[in-house]
Amino acid sequence: MYYQHVRKVLASGALQDTDNNVADFDIVSTLAPIYGTAGPENLSSPLPRSSSQIAPSLLDASAPAGAAPNQVRSGSSNSGTLSVRRTYTNNTGAPVTRLRFRITDLSTEGSRTADEAELRFVGSPDISVTLGNGNVVEVQGTRFEGALGGIIEGGLNSTASVESVTPAHPLAPGASISVQFLFNVRIDGSYRFAFEAQATNAARKAPSDFDGDGKTDFAIFRRSNGTWYALRSGNGGLLSQPFGLQGDYMVVQDYDGDGKSDLAVWRAAIPLTEPAVFYVLRSSDNTLAAQAWGRFTDVPVPDDYDGDGKADYAVYRDGNNLSPLSYWYVLRSTDGSLVATQWGTDGDRPQPGDYDGDGRADLTIKRAAPGGSSMNPQPATFYTLLSSTGALYARAWGIDHEIEAEGDYDGDGKTDTAVYRWGTDPSGSPGTFYILQSGGGTIIQQWGQFGDFCVPGDYDGDGRTDLAVWRPTEGTFYVLKSSGGQLTQQWGQPGDLPTTVYLGR
Is the CB of residue 193 less than 8 Å from the CB of residue 86? Predict the structure, then answer.
């Protein structure tokens, strides 16, 4: 069982910090309200506790665990620091895009015996360490997550993240990384500590990445002949593949977990009494997968809801006048089980994404205030059910009748809340992206013009979503790269559809 702690808040609004974790923290309870600042750790990590998938070893195998350079004590009695250094190997079989460690055991206030040390976790810088054989290795520092209100020390349940591991710079399968954990020593004695590795290897992959190089490919679906055309960014090669029918919904995702987007469509049933069907052309073996899932009035919302690196078949069933509650139906790729969750009401728009960065898609809807119209749009609010904690994440952003434009624009591994608003003048007034970053910042950027398709993606492969539109009158992509500069690519013709657009939303 995991416990979620919150730091108490004083009447002044400041966070309580009496130097005593027992006094300063409370366990979240369902029986009564607890006021405080929740920790950022996941309650259900993609990797289980003590998992061999992120295997630890000594920094220097020739030295004892309690001796330098594996463990270094500096400073005088009852002061100074303790450094613990370990090497971790990625045995998950997939790139790890986020790596962090949750302190599950520590000799600190409230959990130490009389003869044990009292330690407080702090962030540490990157350092160079010389091993016993004379080789020099680079050891990555860790950052104390959730250091709010001037609090710079952590204890039990605190989380240390390795900032050098990102979607743009993942830890490859089989690769290792050396990490340092740094503690302030308040009282000398025997040391006790344990960490739970938490790794996300189901990153938000670049949409429409058909060659698996981490970049969004320029791709369109030609409805007139039912053919997909993609310009592969890896080698400039052409993908031309007949697949699907004119009335299908494009639902491009990585369904087989090979790191490449699969051609996929969702076909609403005719007659309407029959189930709708997902059709997927797997890139791993070029075989066809067909899965009946949903019905004619549903909205397809495939995504990776269980964090295994594979998209799950999923639909969103909107409520109606007789039954206003909306439901999500997910067929998990991990075990084939059905998960049905009520989230949303009649008139909401589904917008799944990994808003908490735990490697799993979160159920999210956009709800506009009542009384709106295309001529009189109303303010909108996004409501997310976070998969990491089960908590509600609500934020007012945008207005009704906008185009949702979710993506990871700041490269922190979390989906940002974003919308695209057309200009009001059909003769060519500019469109605008409105982005609420997961860290709290905002981006408002004009890009595109009236009638353009909103097609954000990672076209430059830097791990951040780029602002992009596809102009149907020209068949041209216009990309404002997050790495700097602009990119223009003619691809397609009038009547085509870009593959990064979800037609069901």
Answer: no
